Amino acid sequence: MSERVFVVGVGMTKFEKPGSKEWDYPDMGREAGQKALDDAGIEYALIEQAFMAYCYGDSTTGQRALYELGLSGIPAINVNNNCSTGSSALFLGRKFIQGGLCDCVLALGFEKMEKGSLGMKYDDRTNPMDKHFTDMIGRRGFENAPPAAQMFGNAGREYMERYGVTAESFARIGEKNHRHSVNNPYSQFRDEYSLEDILKAPMVYDPLTKLQCCPTSDGGAAAVLASERFVKEHGLEAQAVEIVGQAMTTDFESTFSGSDMSLAGVDMTRAAARAVYEESGLGPEDVDVVELHDCFSANELISYEGLGLCGEGKAGELIDSGAVTYGGQVVVNPSGGLISKGHPLGATGLAQCSELTWQLRGTADARQVDGASVALQHNLGLGGAAVVTMYRKDG
Known about the structure:
By secondary structure, the protein is an alpha/beta fold. Helix content is about 35%, strand content about 15%. A hairpin with a 3-residue loop joins β11 and β12 (about 385-390).
């Protein structure tokens, strides 16, 4: 028998443009972590284990951030799984409680980033994405554009070629997510744009304009996870949100089978989603709100299908019909998503967790999805790992 696992506290910083604010990663970790502890109403001394999520930093950067909360000698593990790092820490924390090893753990994510597009830090060793880029270049070549934009842009191109989706469908995702972010005080950008604005923004890599691409960001986010026993002992039932399903997948042979969408992770997404639906006993038709990894609008579009929100080839129709915003079938990225909210790699997955926890508690203010009781999270990192998580709030 596995233990039930609940999110009992969440917190995050506002996401900021790198270099725009005088702070460092310990400040991000302290603010996000303390907010999560305060939200749970517990002291740091009750945390039995911590998982710290970051991509850019020296070896024990996680401990340095954690020390801002206390020095209690607990086991502390640093996690780095590219853009899915934050939800990978969440995944590990859940496993420890689910297996009965802990009653209360902390997942703490943060990132202090550099301005501009992501690049490689080490040029004296094998690039961990070498298989991905070799596969991509052999099929599509390489242009003078950010590598990640090309990887996901090519996935979008393949979907267009297969199903006749137009550039406007991708742009509608950018329009939707920027519009949603207006109501999010934690978002790096809070400007609303018309569809024409999105389409006429500078082209990064066709069909992706600048307003369809997530920015680099500084920021932190955290979640306190607890067992059912801990929830009852501390009277946290009213705020506890249960993780009823969760799965992590890594690359399959199909990743390198000649498909740009597979190369961009859609097979990992599909397999993780299926496992989550099986574990939770819930399906995409039960979901009220989704936080989805929209590093680029193309990834949101192909992930609709990967998560089962629509049938094969129907992702363009889903966004074009208004089905994934307020008043539609399901609200996707009420936070503004990565495109508007920002993408500090280690914090992103835990910021998604925070947003969905607020949504299911009914405390998301102007972003609130009416009657939300089931939520789905999708966090993807190339190289690669996908983490899909299902949340439910009873009562």
